[in-house]
Amino acid sequence: MAYLELNSAALKHNFLFLKDLFGGHGKDWGVVSKLLCGNKLFLEEVIKLHPDCIFDSRLSNLQMIKNINPKIKTGYIKPPPTRSIKKLIEVADISFNTQFETIEMIDRYAKEAGKIHQIVIMIEMGDLREGVMREDFVAFYARIFELQHIEVIGIGANLNCLNGIMPSHDKLIQLSLYEQLIEAKFDKKIPWVSLGTSITLPLLLKSLVPEGINHFRIGESLFFGNDLFEDAPLEGMKQDVFMLYAEVLEVMEKPVNPTGYVGSNVAGETPVFEIEDYSETSVRILVDIGILDIEVKNIRPLREEYHLEGGSSDMIVLDVGKNTHHIKVGDMVPFHVNYMGALRLLNSKYIEKRLG
């Protein structure tokens, strides 16, 4: 059976690296756990590291976090659905908001629960996902400050998730100036200016994040140790927090080129082959994971000489050349996996999750 393994030591290394980095720059930060899809085993490993706050985009995941440790601070990092406000108040201490009507409902339910709910108001900074338009945000804040069971703890923005708009020094400065404007106009302290995500981390490493941006929400870089600007490893961080292992089902020498009429495969693709020598052969192996669980483009064999040929719903085919490593049926083949690959695997009920 295929399984996804989390390397606890590598995760701890990356967490401590980030803790030291943010502490050295005087920045607050929290862990974004949505990648883990509420997996109890893996969430427990994150919680053992004692993050200041864990953010997620699913209320069921936040419920799992609270079940593990009711005292840990949690945040819901997308505009909340109005039909789930009561649940939001139960499992999230903080929520990220853009709609006044929704915040009014949160205020009402928080009053019934005898709570003060903290919110971060998101501002549209160009990526065109969530966020109050900049020309409206002063009036928006004025209405929010009238609510009795809402505490505004931050102004935030999101970049790169929809249209690929990258963070820049100019955009970071803009957001910090909006926070200063709100504080001056309403005489209210806004503790967090949150435009720091994994995509912004390389700017911090280069000391290009202005002092006014003081809060980061980190998921991908924690779990993969990567620089999203350069699509490269971040120096000093581990890239092997996750590893996929798939069992070999078949090992056989076969022709390099298929024969027969070429139509569409199960993924709706029509393969194209460069036929040079029909007599050429190589060893092919089948492993017990398929495109139902993960897209082939999101994994990479640990052995660079292995070539991914493609996959069907439940199996993936690799060309292992002359099989110099003597792979046999029943062996486990390791794969590197990227963020989207791990996300699919964690959401698959067919893939076992283990600690390493």
From TrEMBL:
Alanine racemase N-terminal domain: from which residue to which, for each copy? Answer: 7-226
By its UniProt entry, which Pfam families does this protein fall under?
Ala_racemase_N
Instruction: Give the CC-aspect GO terms.
Output: cytosol
Q: Which UniProt keywords apply?
A: Isomerase, Pyridoxal phosphate
Q: Which domain of life is it from?
A: Bacteria
MF term (GO), any: alanine racemase activity
Per its UniProt record, the required cofactor names are: pyridoxal 5'-phosphate
Q: Isomerase among the record's keywords?
A: yes
Under InterPro entries, the record lists: Ala_racemase (IPR000821), Ala_racemase_N (IPR001608), PLP-binding_barrel (IPR029066)
What PANTHER family has UniProt attached to this entry? ALANINE RACEMASE, LYSINE RACEMASE
Protein name, per record:
Predicted amino acid racemase
- Upper taxonomic lineage: Bacteria, Pseudomonadati, Bacteroidota, Flavobacteriia, Flavobacteriales
